[in-house]
């Protein structure tokens, strides 16, 4: 082979190799560009703003939405754009009803239950997607980290099929009694245990100037609010919690109409007559209730254990010396604390429309928020690094009560509202990061022992109750009307209660009992 030919061949081979390499590099670059330029998959969740100021002023390019999208995309390797559409909580149910009536069904939405009165027949009408098969395929963390009893909750499933993803409480039971510990210490009293102890504390508060303002009549021993919200703390002591049911004489009946309810009402009337509760309890709104507590005018109140992570919201009290303690509730003659009925821990649900474009990606998102991804856990606990917290030498520096976290309810926004898994205020990351870890842990232990068994836990809401809220016990109900008349001396207890039971049964209650009894006997194989 001539020297000239050899040089030609070497040059040709080199050129071909170079071209091949260039073509390969070009192909890889195009693939990379294609991947990076892939349009993000949109996941928009409709929900109510909960009265949260930050949520009320949200925009779709909010920094928390962007950070959540970034973390989820990073976790999956696929670009996503996750955001929430916020609707005022005051009109949310009405908006849902309008959207369902018009056929404008959101792909993903938050609701109280799959048969919410705003969309009572959505399951039967095929509006909601059955989620079981998708969860089996794309939701291993959902199956692993949501307890079995939650999937059986009638707010989540029907006829053994799952139509909603539960938004869980941080604990199955979240309720405890909070009190002004500095007042108890000032009185030289020990923590109340029995009902007599509670009443002695109430009496001292009522008759002494605990807040030192020179007025002995402005303190409220136990604060109550409209519709008995966060006010049912003493019904269970009498075996008559208004949200529980009992099987008696072959019938499954609500505690609203059992004879023990008269004892409970009699007790609340005594609290009212002695001034142990606020006189405006029938009209007191939640914000006014909170203000009354933080102004230093309340000795005890019923609340969620989550607030203990910030010392029972001590930072909100006008009195800098205020300190908060926690109690499980009064011990009865049997040595038990029956504060609240047992529940599955389901707070609300997220549903997916049968017409959703990417239901498998929606399930993947909910699976991620229930995963053990450390980056996700930090986000829901502390917010955004560099905004809500910083890391110094590997240590997280986060102040839950800093302005950036507290202003306009920002911390509640990222820890609870946009956290589909539930409530990060009870995350070990949060509890251990604050100075109130011991107080919070004490409250958590109380929530594990202050509930009682309630066999209605898995009962679907009877159809008549869905259509007739007046058969319940909140504002506008027959029960509340009777309760107010008795406490304000407009009618005697015995007469008013007996009349209420008759009217309740006549206006649909008897059918409610029949439906509930049928369910009970079928479910418990009676």
Key terms:
single chain; 526 residues; alpha/beta; 5-stranded mixed sheet; 4-stranded mixed sheet; 20 helices; 17 strands; disordered N terminus
Task: Tell me what the structure shows.
The chain is α/β, with parallel strands linked by helices. It is built from 20 helices and 17 strands. It has helices at 3-36, 53-56, 63-76, 92-102, 132-138, 140-145, 148-151, 181-187, 195-207, 260-273, 286-294, 359-369, 374-382, 403-406, 410-417, 428-431, 437-447, 463-467, 478-487, 493-523, and strands at residues 41-48, 80-87, 108-111, 157-158, 161-162, 165-168, 175-180, 220-222, 245-248, 251-254, 298-304, 324-327, 340-341, 346-352, 390-392, 395-397, 451-452. It has a five-stranded mixed sheet with strand order 2-1-3-14-6. A hairpin with a 2-residue loop joins strand 4 (157-158) and strand 5 (161-162). Helix 13 runs antiparallel to helix 15 and helix 19 (478-487) runs antiparallel to helix 20 (493-523). It is globular. It starts with a helix and ends with a helix. The relative contact order is 0.14.
Q: Which segments are poorly predicted (pLDDT under 50) over 5 or more consecutive residues?
A: 1-36
Side by side, the strands of the main sheet go 2-1-3-14-6
Total strands:
17
Give the averaged pLDDT, no decimals: 92
Number of helices, counting only DSSP H or I runs of 4 residues or more: 20
SSE class = alpha/beta
The proportion of residues in beta strands is 5-15%
Helix proportion range: 40-55%
* Main beta sheet: 5 strands, mixed
N- to C-terminal separation?
A: 100 Å
The radius of gyration is 28 Å
Q: Specify the overall morphology.
A: globular
């Amino acid at each position: 082979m001539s020297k000239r030919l050899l040089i030609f061949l070497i040059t040709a081979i080199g050129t071909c190799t170079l071209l091949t390499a260039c073509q390969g590099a070009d192909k890889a670059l195009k693939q990379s560009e294609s991947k990076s330029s892939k349009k993000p998959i949109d996941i928009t969740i409709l929900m109510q703003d909960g009265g949260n100021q930050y949520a009320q002023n949200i925009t779709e390019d909010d920094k928390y939405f962007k950070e959540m999208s970034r973390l989820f995309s990073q976790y999956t390797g696929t670009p996503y754009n996750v955001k929430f559409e916020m609707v005022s909580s005051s009109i949310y149910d009405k908006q849902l009803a309008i959207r369902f009536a018009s056929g404008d069904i959101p792909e993903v939405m938050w609701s109280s239950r799959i048969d919410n009165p705003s969309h009572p027949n959505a399951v039967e009408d095929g509006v909601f997607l059955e989620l079981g098969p998708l969860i089996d395929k794309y939701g291993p963390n959902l199956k692993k980290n949501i307890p079995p009893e939650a999937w059986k909750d009638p707010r989540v499933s029907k006829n053994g099929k799952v139509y909603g993803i539960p938004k869980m409480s941080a604990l199955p039971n979240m309720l405890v009694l909070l009190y002004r510990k500095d007042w108890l210490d000032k009185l030289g009293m020990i923590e109340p245990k029995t009902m007599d102890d509670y009443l002695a504390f109430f009496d001292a508060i009522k008759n002494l100037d605990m807040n030192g303002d020179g007025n002995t009549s402005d303190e409220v021993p136990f604060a109550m609010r409209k519709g008995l919200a966060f006010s049912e703390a003493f019904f269970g002591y009498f075996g008559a919690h208004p949200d529980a049911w009992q099987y008696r004489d072959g019938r499954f009946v609500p505690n609203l109409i059992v004879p023990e309810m008269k004892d409970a009402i009699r007790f609340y009337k005594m609290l009212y007559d002695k001034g142990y509760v606020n006189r405006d309890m029938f009209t007191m709104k939640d914000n006014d209730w909170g203000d009354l507590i933080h102004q230093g005018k309340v000795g005890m109140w019923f609340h969620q254990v989550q607030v203990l992570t910030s010392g029972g919201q001590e930072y909100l009290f006008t009195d800098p010396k205020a300190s908060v303690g926690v109690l499980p509730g009064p011990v009865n003659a049997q040595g038990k604390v029956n504060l609240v009925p047992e529940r599955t821990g389901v707070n609300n649900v997220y549903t997916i429309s049968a017409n959703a474009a990417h239901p498998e990606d929606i399930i993947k998102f909910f699976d991620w928020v229930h995963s053990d991804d450390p980056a996700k856990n930090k986000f829901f606990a502390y917010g955004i690094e560099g905004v809500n917290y910083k890391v110094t030498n590997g240590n997280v520096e986060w102040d839950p009560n800093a302005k950036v976290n507290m202003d306009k309810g920002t911390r509640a926004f990222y820890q609870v509202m946009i956290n589909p898994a539930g409530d990060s205020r009870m995350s070990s990351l949060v509890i251990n990061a604050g100075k109130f870890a011991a107080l919070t842990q004490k409250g958590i232990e109380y929530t594990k022992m202050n509930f009682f068994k309630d066999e209605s836990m898995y009962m679907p809401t009877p159809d008549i109750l869905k259509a007739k809220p007046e058969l319940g016990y909140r504002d506008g109900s027959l029960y509340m009307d009777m309760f107010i008349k008795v406490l304000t001396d407009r009618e005697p207890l015995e007469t008013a209660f007996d009349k209420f039971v008759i009217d309740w049964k006549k206006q649909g209650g008897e059918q409610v009992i029949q439906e509930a009894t049928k369910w009970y006997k079928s479910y418990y194989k009676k």
